[in-house]
Design a protein that fits this description.
about 50% helix; 2 domains; 9 helices; mainly alpha
């Protein structure tokens, strides 16, 4: 794995090193954080380990500051704010990037699959339905990401089941009807084709789950 470039701000390590100057431009327009970012998680992107914050506590930058950024820089900004502590802010910025298949965007989307806001899961599910079609850019990008990060995706699968079991069984009586289940099916399909073998399914086979909360 290649090392990431040095930077005084750890948020630059959320992206591959070739994007460091763009990440620094984004950080320059972001207001100072009220709190330190929540503990980061590491995944492999473009043969590098990147370190994505669990949560951000920055206010959103002014509209004119965002407009001053390049399209790539705005994309990185939306990625970072998809980690915001406010779910409404996360969803708003997710909607700006979820259609992208750039490899550094993919982990931000997959991380949200493993979180608890069902409205965000619906947004992702609506956008990523082409993952079921082999050869599409999304199918390739997400499949490769999962192949490169099997432990991260295993944890994501378990989290999807856990949040359904804890919060959504009253709305979705069986896991099969939950949007998170649909997303896991799509992601496993992409990973299976990329790996050349069926990807492990850690979701429940039956209607009820015990012991996840």
């Amino acid at each position: 794995m290649q090392p990431l470039s040095d930077s005084s701000n750890p948020l630059t390590t959320a992206f591959p090193s070739e994007l460091a100057s763009d990440a620094e431009a984004v950080l320059a327009v972001m207001p100072a954080s009220r709190l330190q970012p929540h503990a980061s998680f590491s995944v492999v992107v473009a043969d590098q380990h990147v370190y994505i914050p669990g949560r951000l506590y920055h206010d959103e930058p002014p509209t004119d500051a965002v407009a001053s950024l390049s399209s790539r820089q705005r994309q990185l900004l939306h990625c970072l704010y998809s980690r915001h502590c406010d779910g409404v802010v996360r969803q708003r910025h997710l909607e700006k990037i979820v259609a992208s298949t750039d490899p550094w965007v993919v982990p931000f989307v997959v991380q949200l699959v493993g979180e608890y806001v069902v409205e965000i899961l619906v947004v992702i599910c609506d956008e990523l339905r082409d993952l079921a079609t082999p050869g599409t850019r999304g199918h390739l990008a997400y499949g490769q990401f999962i192949v490169n990060n099997p432990a991260f995706f295993a944890r994501t699968q378990r989290r999807v089941v856990s949040y359904w079991s804890c919060y959504y069984r009253g709305t979705y009586a069986i896991f099969r009807g939950y949007p998170g289940c649909t997303l896991l099916d799509l992601l496993r399909s992409a990973a299976s084709d990329r790996a050349g073998h069926p990807w492990p399914n850690l979701a429940p086979a039956g209607a009820r789950v015990h012991g996840y909360c």
